[in-house]
Design a protein that fits this description.
alpha+beta, Thiol Ester Dehydrase, Chain A, 4 helices
């Protein structure tokens, strides 16, 4: 698979958002079901002050990775980077939408590094994660 050509990527361009329903089953599959876990035990999560079990933060980063692979293909798989901050919890029953905007393109070796500003929001428009991801595109 060849790297995506950077000429088709414009700074300021919005990436197509990706929405994912965050079901308890999806969290269980990702986390492994364990008693006394805020991720998979609803009663334990409530005891710890959450309305429902929490999705692990790495679920959000996996969905951002999906968005970046759609943009850059192999260029994200081979040269991808991500730096994020989790700012609000994602709960079972939420719908999470990943957003991205091309921030810049920078020469890097024989390729161009494409930097994307990213953020995730729940169904209420509450931002749950912010950060940047980048990967390589062909020159």
């Amino acid at each position: 698979m060849a790297l995506t050509n950077h000429h088709s990527i414009t700074p300021g361009a919005e990436l197509p958002p990706i929405s994912k329903p965050i079901s308890q089953r999806r969290i269980d599959c990702y986390s492994g079901v364990r008693p006394k876990s805020i991720h998979t035990d609803p009663e334990w999560a409530k005891k710890k002050g959450f309305a429902a079990p929490l999705a692990q933060g790495m679920m959000s980063t996996a969905y951002v990775s999906e968005m970046m692979v759609r943009l850059l293909g192999e260029g994200f798989i081979r040269g991808g980077r991500m730096s994020v901050k989790f700012v609000k919890p994602v709960l079972a029953g939420d719908t999470l939408t990943m957003h991205g905007r091309v921030k810049s393109k920078e020469l890097e070796g024989e390729a161009t590094r494409v930097v994307v500003e990213l953020w995730c929001e729940n169904q209420d428009g509450v931002t749950t994660m912010v950060g940047e991801a980048s990967g390589l595109a062909a020159r």
